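Fold sample X.
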Amino acid sequence: MRYLVWVLRLLVFIAVLIFAVKNTDPVRVNFYADYAVQNVPLIVVMLATFVVGAVFGMLLTVPVSMRRRREVARLRREVERLQAVAANAGAELDSAQLSPESIAPMSPL
């Protein structure tokens, strides 16, 4: 399985490399307020656009990630509290020396 993943990575790398070599034509990038950058390779523009999109995508996941972390922390505290309650209840049951009939009475046949 590990070799299959590496083969797939190599194929993707080769495809991206061929794509980059084919898209080296210089382009003009126009910004707002008539600001333009001349003779930028197309692959650089595409790569910059991809990186900016990936960064924005990651920034959008930050609030959800923080909310999940807070929920996990809250649930861990709840589990610890319930384990402490269960341990105390178990200690109380051990100290009471209950007989089996007091828990589940046997019925006469």
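Fold sample Y, listed below.
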Amino acid sequence: MTFEKDSCKENYERLPKKFYHLINDYPSIRKGCSAMANEKILVVDDEVDILELMTFNLAREGYRVFTADNGEKAIKIAKSEIPDMIILDLMLPGIDGLEVARVLKSRENTKAIPIIMVSAKGDESDIVSGLELGADDYVTKPFSPKILIARIRVVLRRKSDEISDHSAPLHVHAFMIDPQRREVTVNGNPVELTFTEFQVLHFLAKRPGWVFTRSQIVDAAKGDNYAVTDRSVDVQIVGLRKKLGDAGKFIETVRGVGYRFRERS
């Protein structure tokens, strides 16, 4: 068997042997894979059949696949490989899926990895718990591999769009907000902001007219070196408006809800 890319050879070698006879039917595994060939996906599930099925289907689409059958292995692989996506079962022996997500989202080098949770548990409370921990999507068993792969593509595309969105300078009204340089100017005049103030301003200004609750603003302003709470959002807004001077009027209070960035001048 010959391969055009090393990553495709890795896909083949990771496949369960019972799928080897199907390789010729799926040249994406053997040849150039696809445009997504270098994206790594970690599949975490204690059911061997599901691991094998997902490995085959993801490899067929050109993804580089890693697997773990328990939470401890999942954390170890995530830390060493830094996958582009994790498919995470909730019901795992030892450390369960929610705890795995909690650990990964608390660490700097793994917190940005998108997670799709998969489980036979369909209770609303489980879905909410997973999403609140930072999961990007939630799928219940039994599921169609095609549907899961479609959701994987959506989440990866959204991640890519967010990276592009966050890196490009934002021009709105009299503001220029540069996320990479972390610089803000109003009518060409520089405005010195704290890290948290910058996060809040950038988050609101990206979507003029949209109303955000204090909790949503807290989530957008989270970081390792400072604390933000619902109450302190109001303090941050007061300080931000003061530094912006007359331009502070663009940050509007929506009574009983939160704040928004004015849509029109």
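Sample Y note: Residues 145-167 form the longest helix (23 residues).
Also: The longest strand covers residues 40-44.
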